[in-house]
Amino acid sequence: MAAAVRSQVISLYRMMLTESKKFPSYNYRTYALRRVRDAFRANGALEDPRAVERLVVEGQQTLALIKRQVIPAVVSD
């Protein structure tokens, strides 16, 4: 894996962990953290550049989903 891609993957991993820690519910939080860690471990030895790029795009989409889900509800008066 090229150094630029490796740093992009590590950055994505850290952002996903950070956002997953923001879930208010303990069960959702631990589930999200476990899923992120397991997915990155399962694909850690992947060498194919196309597959890595596809997984990075998928990870970015998942990160966007996590960010939408952890946004606190706005209470209006």
From TrEMBL:
Listed name of the protein: Complex 1 LYR protein domain-containing protein
Family stated for the protein in its record: Belongs to the complex I LYR family.
Alphabetized Pfam families for the sequence: Complex1_LYR
Swiss-Prot/TrEMBL GO biological process terms: iron-sulfur cluster assembly
Annotated coiled-coil segments of the chain: none
GO cellular component terms, A-Z: L-cysteine desulfurase complex; mitochondrion
InterPro entries referenced in this protein's UniProt entry, alphabetically: Complex1_LYR_dom, Complex1_LYR_LYRM4, ISC_assembly_LYR
The organism's place on the tree of life at top rank: Eukaryota
Residue intervals of the Complex 1 LYR protein domain: 8-64
